UniProtKB/TrEMBL annotation:
Biological source species: Spodoptera exigua (Beet armyworm)
Ranges where the DUF7041 domain occurs: 25-106
Full protein name: DUF7041 domain-containing protein
Pfam family membership, one: DUF7041
Length: 120
């Protein structure tokens, strides 16, 4: 006869809510970090989560490359505003500059029968 299985601890409603939130947040988008944070904050907004909870959720959605980029902040997080600091650093690292965005737009644009002055 197999030994009895110990009972599992009761699942708290907050645990279920956290699992539900985590499943609604996609992995971090390095090509659109600002848009990812807008979506993240839309999911987290109604929950009124603390900076620490949001920080932990963002860290859980980062891949190896992103974690390496913010390793200093993960290893030694600030006492206050952890989420805001992490958010700002990720956006600074992965958001293309306005000049780079313009260059990408122009280089990918097809003129067809148009002259460049017609785009203005």
């Amino acid at each position: 006869m197999a030994p009895p299985v110990p009972p599992s601890p009761p699942t708290m409603a907050s645990d279920l809510a956290a699992i539900g939130l985590a499943s609604r947040v996609p992995p971090f988008w390095t090509d659109m970090p600002k848009m990812w944070f807008q979506q993240f904050e839309s999911v987290m907004g109604p929950q009124h989560q603390s900076e620490q909870v949001k920080y932990d959720m963002v860290v859980s959605k980062l891949g190896k490359e992103e974690l390496c980029q913010v390793a200093d902040l993960i290893s030694n997080p600030p006492e206050q505003h952890r989420y805001t600091s992490l958010k700002n650093k990720l956006i600074k690292i992965f958001e293309a500059s306005a000049e780079a965005q313009f260059h990408k737009l122009v280089s990918e644009m097809e003129l067809g029968q148009q002259r460049p002055s017609q785009l203005l």
